[in-house]
Amino acid sequence: MTNKNMNFFAKKLVAAFLNNKIIKPIPKIYTSKLIKANSFRKLCESKIKKPIIGFKAGGTAIPLIKKLKEKEPFYASVYKHNVLKNNSLVKKTKYTLGIELEVCYLIKKDFFNLQKIITEKNLNKVISHIGPCIEVVGYRQRKKGIKSFGDLCSDFGGNIKFVIGKLKKYTRNNVKNLKTNISNLNTIIQLMVTLIQLRESHEIFNICFKKTSKGQNKSQKRFLRFHRLNCRGRSYFEQRYL
């Protein structure tokens, strides 16, 4: 009976994912614990035949892990149809949590044929390019806030859309050189890094990458570095919504 129920709710969430719909919250039995949420996510992903372009890692900030009493981050598949071109329009809902600036890595094809274990020492050898990435985060359910990693993991990792900026050939220290900002289409307010509060703004946002001016002040530069390396600290998104 449990497997039938799980399959029933998975079909509902998959339909919402494919048709950009919002549904009632799925039962907490599938979201409260990360192990169960991960199983539910895998079941949902198995029902989608669209091509997968990559994977996202979530919950990497150590303070967040401690606050929610989790043991590890989570991951989810990123589908090609949800990766948008620069200057794309994204419609928000009441259940869109916000926008985050992330870093994406392009992995070499021979990575998938490796027979050895990947460690911190040899990880750099399998990365070919690096680039900035904007993620729209939220639910396909009528729910708000984050009580556990399972909330996000179970709903396709909380990923709504991705926009990938210009890729650069990867070197170990070039993460600080990914100058990016986020622009609001209607107010033309350029935000260096921070999350745009979608629920308090317009219905449609223009998500784009632009070069920042050389005259940005020191506090902006520090904030850029802080957010891009948010696995070492608490990101603005987490401060606002947790």
**What's the count of strands?**
11
Radius of gyration: 18 Å
Biggest beta sheet summary = 5 strands, mixed
Instruction: Give the CATH H-level superfamily.
Output: Fumarylacetoacetase-like, C-terminal domain
Explain what this protein looks like in three dimensions:
The protein is of the alpha+beta class and 242 residues long. The chain has a single domain, classed as Alpha-Beta Complex (Fumarylacetoacetate hydrolase, domain 2). The chain contains six helices and eleven strands. It has helices spanning 2-19, 34-46, 62-67, 149-154, 218-228, 236-241; strands at 52-58, 74-79, 83-84, 88-91, 96-107, 127-138, 159-164, 168-169, 182-183, 190-191, 204-207. Strands 3, 5, 6, 7 and 8 form a five-stranded mixed beta sheet that branches. The chain has a two-stranded antiparallel sheet with strand order 1-2. Strands 4-11 form a two-stranded antiparallel ribbon. β9 and β10 form a beta hairpin. α1 (2-19) packs across α2 (34-46). Residues 185-203 and 212-242 have low confidence and may be disordered.
Task: Write a brief caption for the model.
The protein has 242 residues and is α+β, with helices and mostly antiparallel strands. Helices cover 25% and strands 24% of the residues. The protein has a single domain, classed as Fumarylacetoacetase-like, C-terminal domain (Fumarylacetoacetate hydrolase, domain 2, Alpha-Beta Complex), CATH 3.90.850.10.
